[in-house]
Amino acid sequence: MLEAGAFRVILLFLGTIALTVSLHNFLHLPAALGMMFGLGLLKLYSFILNRGSVPVEVDELEEGLSVVLGSDEGGPDADRPARGAVARAANTKPLRTFELMEKIEWDTLLFFYGIVMAVGGLNALGYLGVFSSVFYDGLGPTSASIVVGILSAIVDNVPVMFAVLSAGLSLSQGEWLLVTLTTAVGGSLLSVGSAGGVALMGLARGSYTFGAHLRWSWAIGLGYAVSVGAHLLLNRPLFVG
After folding, report:
1. 63, 108, 117, 237: which could form a disulfide with 202 (CB 3.0–4.6 Å)?
2. pTM for this model (two decimals)
3. Between the ranges 2-11, 35-44, 52-61, 157-166, where is the mean pLDDT highest?
4. What sign does the CA torsion over 177, 179, 181, 184 have?
């Protein structure tokens, strides 16, 4: 069962994606502006939603419970556990997005910052040009994109995609869609290959680990192969360019 405000949060997410793409395509504004604006809307909505969840007084809870449980059954303390459960539920905020974000460790955030800075440094020193000639000129765009997708599982798909974009490649629309697909799906082969996986390991310590994710890598690898094959088959005309 979804919590209160879940559908509106989903709509906010979809609206943020649409707004980010629209601002970038039509007004040529950076994508970060649309994402941060959507984050601000989420914060505003969470404030309004949580403000409406007023904590219920214990007396009111007891009155409601006496109707449901009966005031004469089991003595005055019979419904104390249920009373405490309702009290905790009444004081729980429906939307705690930012409280969960606060639990993400700083080393996780610094990891992404550092890796993007490192890729920017490699681009300034000219190593991304070497990467472009070795992979995409030597192997060919299609094979190189498949290898890049596998590498993104080790390095993380964010810096790998940033490196591809910074290399100044001249690719067809089908090849750009392919490298986007491979880095997105291939990055999930390992838990450290995607931003979501790294953040989740910081949040869910002990329950979501590298080994726990590795047990399902075979299924993700199968999906990776099937998705690449489906793209090459269905979007063959887009590779001409």
Report:
1. 108
2. 0.60
3. 35-44
4. negative
